[in-house]
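User: two proteins, same treatment. go.

Assistant:
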Amino acid sequence: MNFLVAGLGNIGPEYENTRHNMGFMVLDAWAKASNIAFTPGKLGSTAEVSYRGRKITLLKPSTFMNLSGKAVRYWMQQLNIGPERLMVVSDDLNLPFGTTRMRRSGSDGGHNGLKSINELIGTTDYARIRLGIGNDFHRGEQVDFVLGNLSQEELEKVPLLAEKVIEGIKTFTFAGADKAMNLVNSAQKTAQNE
């Protein structure tokens, strides 16, 4: 059984450690732990991992964030994957840093990447894991905040957060959304307290 996991972010070294790139950071951590590399392709870079007989394609769109849906739709078609076997990993301003939240469907919550995916695949019924980045900015400074770099303290917490999200995605592919949500949504307190 095949799955597609899209981590959202912006390409280019200037965006590497920005809050908006949490999705890329999770997939990079997974590729590193699996000793595999991403291969550039049409509309994104992909890598393939296996877990308990599941083939999981990791996708980092090479479109900018607000066009992520183009890449996700293309790779869903290429791999013949329906929305029920899609997982999207993104940052979220509405959650405190260190919080992870999984849902099996839902609105874009003001996130341009999710908005683009919803529009282009024609449904909001796909699983997503959101990583909290907080919202410590003044009115009118949202863009600067999401495109700003994580602090050193935050960067040090990313590997642990990535590990929990990866475990959640593996659980999703093997045991379904409910068990994955139990794991990801209960893990949020741990990440904040460590």
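Protein 2:
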Amino acid sequence: MKVKRVTIDEDLRVAFAIRKEVFVKEQGVPLEDEFDQFDTLNGLCEHILVHYNEQPVGTGKIRFIDGVGKLERICILESYRKFGLGKIIIKALEEIAEERGASQVKLHGQTQAKGFYKKLGYRIASNIFMEDGIPHILMLKELSRK
């Protein structure tokens, strides 16, 4: 397993292909809702890819809002979801947040994944809300200052 920060357009296209497979094809998110103005390499956010057996199989991104790291579009191709890669993606994004001086991270987690995020130290900070037609909750985590 390897985590790679996305720094070139080809890797960004690979991350987009993974997101399209998971969110658009599998979960039914409209294609026009999947990508936003932060999906670039212009420094507004950072994207990562996770590889399993040299294959890119998962991705996520982080952007910063008022000093808080917001983890977004975290996904893994279906056949690779039982290898602990989600935890690796979250930890890599949290490390980026710490590098940038953030003391807290947040995410909009699908309600079906709240147990996963709770195990990683996140707490529920909202009622259920709909995003892209899928029930979500706001989750927060304080980062340890080193």
